[in-house]
Design brief:
Helices cover about 35% and strands about 25% of the residues. It is of the alpha/beta class and about 325 residues long. The strands form 3 sheets. Strands 3-2-1-4-5-12-11 form a 7-stranded mixed beta sheet, sandwiched between helices. It has a 3-stranded antiparallel beta sheet with strand order 6-7-10. Helix 3 packs parallel to helix 4. The protein is globular. Bound molecules: N,N,N-trimethyl-histidine. N,N,N-trimethyl-histidine binds next to strand 10. It is an enzyme of class 2 (transferase). This is L-histidine N(Alpha)-methyltransferase. Keywords: Methyltransferase, Transferase. InterPro entries: EgtD, EgtD_Methyltrsf_superfamily, MeTrfase_dom, MeTrfase_EgtD-like, SAM-dependent_MTases_sf.
């Protein structure tokens, strides 16, 4: 696996077939049409996401790793002794390893991952590198209430680690709901260590979601490949294209699949009509100033105890407490 592999890999992040078709059809009846972002992450999509992380324009992963290189020791100090580290999404490792290397006496590492195979690989890799740290994998959906395994000894605190700015994929309401759920899981003395991409100039952000090699475009259009295979649809891949633009007012990248002509598509037993240039919304990636993030945290009853930026001030990591 690549050095800059990523956090968000859920090829099983989908409901069983009937419900799957129903969700897709409902999204396509919406105005505007819409498809859920978890559709990205089938096996091919997860590979493409890893390739995105290696594109020169996609600064997020590189900068978060640079941030951890610069500050992991300080972060570990703030988290303190006897931490139980619960990660949302099983880390490929790079950033998690940097943290574990500096935590003095971790009680346990609990990767929460919906997809069994990446979870298994994570456990295997981490156990090999950190034989002294008990790994307690949890195969499940981190957006739902978690039942954390009983730790091998009493932790001083439970810290939920949510890197990658994946929080940015949730709309404001859902993001606050997810943080509120995390707040209850971490308990009274606990905390949340969370990555958040910073607001910056539009050109830099838009380039990250429109790489020259076209990997992000392929990642986006892979959704249609997946629908053709799994739902039984006949999207013509030549007649749709990727579009990602930064909405300055909302502070987020908005990704669309755009129909290049007027056309009809069969989706299951349904017939869906597209106008020329009609856009289907497929993903938001929110960007946060430090004040934005503090505001989001406050909505969930949390405060920012400390923040760190990478050396180029592109990406941030916040430590949230009650
Ligand atoms: C893994 C969700 C953080 O939003 O930047 C990358 C996913 N989408 N390029 C992001 C993504 C298009 C990524 N996250």
């Amino acid at each position: 696996m690549s050095m800059q592999a990523c956090d968000f890999r859920g090829d099983e992040r989908r409901p069983p077939t009937d419900e799957f078709i129903e969700i897709v059809q409902r999204g396509l009846r919406g105005k505007p049409k819409q498809l859920p972002s978890w559709l990205f992450y089938d096996e091919r999509g997860s590979q493409l996401f890893e390739a995105i992380c290696e594109q020169p324009e996609y600064y997020l992963t590189r900068c978060e790793i640079a941030l951890m290189s610069a500050h992991a020791a300080d972060i570990a100090n703030v988290l303190g002794d006897d931490v139980r580290l619960v990660e949302y999404g099983s880390g490929n490792a790079v950033k998690t390893r940097m943290l574990l290397e500096h935590l003095r006496t971790p009680v346990a590492y609990v990767p929460v991952e919906i997809s069994a195979e990446p979870l298994r690989r994570c456990v295997e890799g981490l156990t090999e590198s950190f034989p002294a740290v008990p790994v307690q994998p949890l195969n499940g959906d981190f957006t739902r209430a978690l039942r954390l395994p009983i730790p091998p000894r009493a932790p001083r605190r439970t810290v939920l680690y949510f890197p990658g700015s994946t929080i940015g994929n949730f709309e404001a309401r859902e993001a606050a709901d997810l943080l509120r759920k995390m707040r209850s899981e971490m308990g009274d003395g606990g905390g949340i260590l969370i990555g958040a991409d910073l607001k910056k100039d539009t050109a830099t952000i838009e380039a990250a979601y429109n790489d020259r090699a076209g990997v992000t475009a392929e990642f986006t259009l892979n959704m249609l490949v997946r629908l053709n295979r799994e739902v039984g649809s006949d999207f013509d891949l030549q007649a749709f294209r990727h579009r990602a633009h930064y909405n300055t007012m909302a502070g987020r990248i908005e990704t669309f699949i755009v129909s290049t002509r007027e056309q009809k598509v069969r989706v299951g037993r349904q017939q869906v009509t597209f106008k020329q240039d009609e856009a289907m919304q497929v993903e938001y990636s929110c960007k946060y100033s430090p004040a934005d993030f503090a505001h989001l945290a406050a909505k969930a009853g949390l405060e920012v105890a400390q923040s760190w930026n990478d050396p180029l001030d592109m990406f941030s990591v916040h430590y949230l407490v009650r």
